[in-house]
Each structure stands twice: as C-alpha cells, then as structure tokens.
Amino acid sequence: MRFTDRRLRRAIRRLRLQVREYDCELVTPDVRIFARRLTTDPAKVSRDLARAVRVPRTFGGRFRPVEQELARSKRGKPRKAYREHKLPGGVVHQPPSIWDLVLPMLMPPLEIDHDGFAHLPHRLYRYQRSGIDFLRSHPSALLADEMGTGKTVQSTVAVRLMFRDKKVRRALVLCPLSLLGVWDRHLAEWAPELAVTVVHGGAKTRRRDWKCPAHVFVTTYDTLRGDLAGDEPVLPPELAAAFDLMLLDEAQTIKNSDSGRTRAVRKIDAKYRWALSGTPVENRLDDLVSLFAVLRPGLLCADDLSATQASSLIAPFVMRRTKAEVMKELPPKMRQDQWLELDQAQREAYERAEKKGREDLEELGDDVSRIHIFSLITKLKMICNFGPGEESSPKLRAVEAKVEAIAASKKKVLIFTQWLEAGVDRLAQALHRFGVVQFDARLDSAGREAAIQKFREDDSITVFVATVKSAGVGLTLTEASYVIHFDHWWNPAWMFQAEDRAHRKGQLEPVNVYSLWMRGTIEERIHEILEKKGMLQEEILDGLTEDAVGGMISVREWKGMLGIGR
After folding, report:
1. Rounded to 5 degrees, what are φ and ψ at 113?
2. Using one digit for the tens of pLDDT, what is the confidence trace for 412-433?
3. Residue 163 to residues 106, 166, 182: CA-CA distances in angstroms?
4. Phi-psi bin for 45: left (phi > 0), alpha (psi -120 to 50), beta?
5. Which CATH superfamily is domain 333-561 in?
6. Alpha-carbon distance 37 to 284, whole Å?
C-alpha cells in the first residue's frame, strides 16, 4: 500500500519518536546519519512503509562486501560494513539501519484467526495457533509439546508478534550448538522483518556481535556462560540487562541448578521468559525446580515441596501436547526388527571379551557400579557391529542391501549409530557409492548446516549417517522416509527421538524404521528386558528424563544380563 504525503509525514514523525526511544548507544554513526535524514530529506525514505529497506541478518564472522551496489564512504571507497554469513546459502546484508530496527514496532499488530494471518510462509495448524497464544499471554511459559510438533515455529511467530505488539525490543534465543542454523533459518523464514545476529566464533567476533544493533540474538548456552564470565565479560552487563525476552530451546539443558550454564542463564533478567522442551523434566523435582527458578523465580521455593504440589503450581505455565493428539494426519511410523547372527570371527572375539569382562566384574563384588557395567556392554556392542580388525560384518552387509534398494527407489535414509570412527566413519566409507553426508560432533555449525542442506537438496545423496547424540534432537529431515538404527543407545528414548527427525510435520510418506540386533549377544538380552518393561513403546517413555528411564533398570538387572551373580 502506498502512503499519501500526509500519511508519510505522520509515519515519519512516529518513526522519529521510536528512534528517540531506542537505545542510541547500540547504533553506529552511520545509523544516526540515516535517522537525521528523515527530517532533512524524507524523499529518500521508502514510501512503502510496510516494507523494510533491507532485511539485515548477521552471523559471527569476518567483514566483507558482498552486494553489487556497495555502500561507499565520502571518499568513494567501499565501506566494510557487511557481515559474512557463515551458513551456506545465507543472506548477507549490512548491519541494520535505525529504520530496520524500529520497523517491527511501526507495523500494525497481527492477529491470528482460523486461517492464521497474512505474511506467513506456511499455514499454521490449529494447535500451533493455540501454542502461540499461550506464549504471548504468559511472561513465564514452558511449551513442552512432543518433538516434531513445531515448537520452533510456534515460538518464532510468537516472538514476531511480541515485536509487533511493541512489548519486546530485544530478544535472546539460547540453544545447543547443533541448532544455531535451525533458529537462523526459522527466523529468516517466519519473521523476515526482524534483524538477527547469531553470536558465535572467537571472543573478538562475539564482542562485536553482542554490540551489533539487532532485534534477536541467537547463541548457545556455553557461549553465554563464557561471555558473562570474568572481570571484563565479552557480553557487557548493560547489554545483558537490555533483553526484554529470553527463549530457552532444549530447556532441559539447565536442569542442573549448579551448572555454569544454569548460573549464566539466571543472570539474564528478561521480563518475558519462555522455554521449549520435548522432554519435560516433571519426573525429577530437582530438575523442575532448576528450570522454574529461571522461568518464574520464587514459584517453587519450599524445601518440603512434593511432586504433586509442584505439578499443581506449574500447571498454569505449562502446555504439553503429543503428536498423536494434534497431528492425526501424520503418516504412520512402521517398525521392523531385523535379527542377525555373528560371523565366526565375531563370535570368537565376543565370547573372549564377555568371559574376561565377567571375571573382572565378579572380582569387584559389591563394588560393581553402572559405570563398570556400561564399560563392558560398550565393548561387547562394538564387537556386535564389527569384529576386531574386520572391515565388514553381517550388520554392514544388511545395511548395504537396504540402502541399495532405497537408492534404487529414489528415496533417502537416515542411519544412526553411537560411535564416530567405529560407526559414522565406517558406514560413510562403505556406503560412499550411494551418496553420503556425515553429521557428528566433529563438525562446526557451518559444517552441520552444509551437511543438512546437501542432504535435502542434492538428489545424488541417499544417506545421512549420524551419531544419535548429535542428530537426535532439533533437526527436521523429512526428505528421508527410511530410518536405520545400526546400533542402539541403552536408553530407547534416544532412538525414538532420532526417528522423529523424519517422522514430523511435513512428512508425506510413511516412515519405515529398521533396527538391527544380533542374536545370542548382549543386544538380545537388552532387547528382552526393554520389551519386558514396555520400554520399546514410545508412549511409555513419553516425557521421561534420561535419569528416569535409567532408573527403570536396576544394577542387579544389568548384572543379570551379563550373567554375573547367577
């Protein structure tokens, strides 16, 4: 819509008021020049006040010019005022002008109706609109929807609306390292008028990023912890105190009240505090107290508080929905266990390792702990994957056969394993001919984004092989309709979470999940006890913490699986 001259003058006066109210210490001299131009030469201001001059996005890195029309200084030389976006395919623009900073507050409020609202890239589901309303109406909120229901989308749109409603001017998003790119993409797609800075890199770069004028700052819990430490913190106290909204993704990260991450988060005194978690921490009271000490300090402060009392107190601030409740249109997830036999070399190596390990544990007697037990289990499970010195194995041959059929049908597959060299690297090398990308903790944020983008967009790539810990949360990989578990974490909840990278909103095909198990080994015994306790059913473990799941199997039962004390 075009503005008349009178409406333009009125909008400019309003803009000047917003500029005056904004923290001018956060803007550069060039920005102040732009603001003064509003009064001296309004003709140079865009007449379409529903559109930003540019959409600024910054990411910790170097400065370099990237556009054809470079901004030039008075001497006619290119001005190095552009950020280099480290993420592949990212949009690179110069730091935001004051116009870009106040634009969201000048734009009219947006209301959600039964069809969502305009200017969104995709349609919102009804339950997502309810989640957005829940966040907007609660300064302290825990959105605990099951993974795969779109919590990031709901919270991103809610943040955008808070800027439109003039309730927020600066927001901080905290997340694990693997999700930096996820948040950057979601903000670019769902809140395009917001200026975003991803704080990452060296100390010098981060110091500059924190001072960069922006609406939303995205960083990791560990970065915040480091940048608030010391006598001369990278994030100055006056900037740390300037956030109106703090959003915690994978909020179970701060379940330990004594950790440095949790102490750092408590230093951010934002008016609005939201948390996202697909694995609520309601099963351990200490975890719950730690989280709500950040979200709503003083709510859970009684020393003799019971779990029932705590649940009652937090109920107004928690929203929890499962996929089964809200996504009935989601295609089914079909499971199939494939049982294999150890080859001769594997069997001999396995029996030697099991006998030696059992003797060592029996010598410890009553001093045997979970650590000792898991150490032996890990050795035995690695032999189940590959015999010592062997390049191939029954498991690998089974995977090769499945991937060959999947590639022939022009589909894609996710393969999860526990190990790096003995898992990810070996699988990637063996499946190279089918087109493979690797995803694990050795990649930095740019490498992770490159792997994800390549898997999504390159038709020659069939396989996404990853460790279950690095890729088990936060990612959306609905391009794959097959999942293979090469081996299994002792906690099956991690298996279910990994599968949900493909089985989530946006998936149009049934998801086929294959789990490989070795007969006559520790894998079969673990499978038996998990099945006996119902722990191979997702609904049984829904919402339980890792410690809670671990508590469902006693040390005595673990020892029994290894044949100790019979």
Report:
1. -110, -165
2. 999 999 998 889 999 999 999 9
3. 9, 5, 21
4. beta
5. P-loop containing nucleotide triphosphate hydrolases (3.40.50.300)
6. 57
